[in-house]
Design goal:
- 38% of the residues lie in helices and 19% in strands.
- It is of the alpha+beta class.
- The chain folds into 2 domains: 79 residues; 231 residues, 2-Layer Sandwich (BirA Bifunctional Protein, domain 2).
- Helix 1 packs parallel to helix 4, helix 2 packs antiparallel against helix 4 and helix 3 runs antiparallel to helix 4.
- The protein is rod-shaped, with a radius of gyration of 42 Å.
- The N and C termini lie far apart (87 Å).
- The relative contact order is 0.10.
- The mean pLDDT is 91.
- The structure holds zinc ion.
Length: 336
């Protein structure tokens, strides 16, 4: 019977390497340690042996049982524990593809940053405005021919007439009403025009409105603001020229030209060999506009200007077509 016990132990030791999962282990338990298992079966035989044999075999039986129980416990621990994943700390990781801001968003951030250094606060307006905000408040009554300067996208509305703002100047009066004087603010944002698109025109583009009102605001200060801004934005000192112009909401009104950044004023195709580039509209705020915000026009003066953000970026990076900005072409977008 001792041989029988020996062969049971041997078998248990041999099969333990084949146990790969908990089901195999359960089968092992039933076979060797179960109520009708091999050990139980042999124990019944030992019990019926004479006393002296019983003692000797009993001790060996206990040894075998303990050995098999140890095998069972060890396998159980191994199978129930979570596998340890080995990994190499030196192995280079997967590169995570990161997106970035669109060139126009980057440019707006940069422009806002430069103006904030000169003391301008940031204001943001809504893209849908009233007819009053876009036109009437800016000295353009209904029958005024200057309204034709902006081809407007109107919105069907019941009460007051609404439209997609044609310029960021639409926020001037509201801001003048809501803020204390003196003030200096910039308002960047999308504007909309109902017109055909080509390489220099889009129906939707970005404008930056500048607005300053105080007791001593004048064109000299405005020119200073432009000198600082253009030098910071384009990275070089540029000559600036004011030309007289007409806008209903400024008096006097000006077109602002900068020295061509592509040919340094020598003359090239982009500046049509004039050496200068039209870059902004500006002027002293018309007293009519200040009065809309109940500002004392004997005490306060203000200047305003409008810059086309796409135009600034096109000149800075020599981009030939405004339609590229919204083309979604990754070859274009990834360059910046
Ligand atoms: Zn040029």
């Amino acid at each position: 019977m001792k041989e029988e016990l020996e062969s049971i132990l041997k078998e248990a030791q041999e099969v333990k390497d084949n146990i790969k999962n908990l089901q195999d282990l359960e089968n092992f338990r039933i076979k060797f340690l179960g109520k009708k298992g091999l050990l139980k079966n042999i124990l019944e035989k030992i019990v019926n042996l004479p006393e002296n044999e019983k003692k000797e075999l009993g001790a060996y039986f206990n040894f075998v049982k303990e050995e098999i129980e140890n095998i069972y416990e060890e396998l159980k621990r191994k199978l129930e524990s979570k596998p340890f994943i080995k990994f190499d700390l030196h192995h280079p990781g997967k590169k995570i593809e990161k997106g970035h801001l669109h060139i126009l968003s980057q440019a707006i951030d940069r422009i806002v940053n430069i103006f904030s250094k000169i003391g301008f606060d940031l204001e943001l307006g809504k893209e849908i405005v009233t007819e009053y905000e876009n036109f009437d408040s800016l000295n353009m009554p209904k029958d005024h021919p200057s309204r034709d300067m902006w081809d407007t996208l109107w919105i069907k509305s019941e009460k007051e007439k609404l439209l997609l703002r044609t310029h960021t100047s639409a926020h001037q009066v509201e801001i003048l009403k809501n803020r204390n004087l003196p003030l200096k603010v910039i308002i960047p944002g999308k504007v909309y025009r109902h017109e055909a698109t080509d390489s220099r025109h889009e129906m939707q583009f970005h404008q930056l409105e500048g607005l300053a009102v105080g007791e001593s605001c004048n064109l000299q200060e405005l020119k200073g603001v432009f000198y600082i801004f253009f030098e910071e934005f384009f990275g070089k000192k540029l000559d600036i020229v004011f030309r007289t112009s007409y806008f209903p909401f400024t008096e006097p009104s000006l077109e602002v030209d900068i020295e061509c950044i592509l040919c340094n004023g020598k003359g090239c195709e982009v500046c049509k060999y004039s050496g200068y580039l039209e870059i902004a509209g500006a002027g002293m705020i018309h007293p009519f506009v200040l009065k809309q915000a109940l500002i004392d026009t004997n005490k306060y003066y203000g200047y305003a200007f409008g810059l086309g953000i796409e135009r600034l970026v096109m000149l800075k990076y020599n981009i030939p077509d405004v339609r590229l900005f919204h083309s979604g072409d990754l070859r274009f977008i990834k360059q910046f």
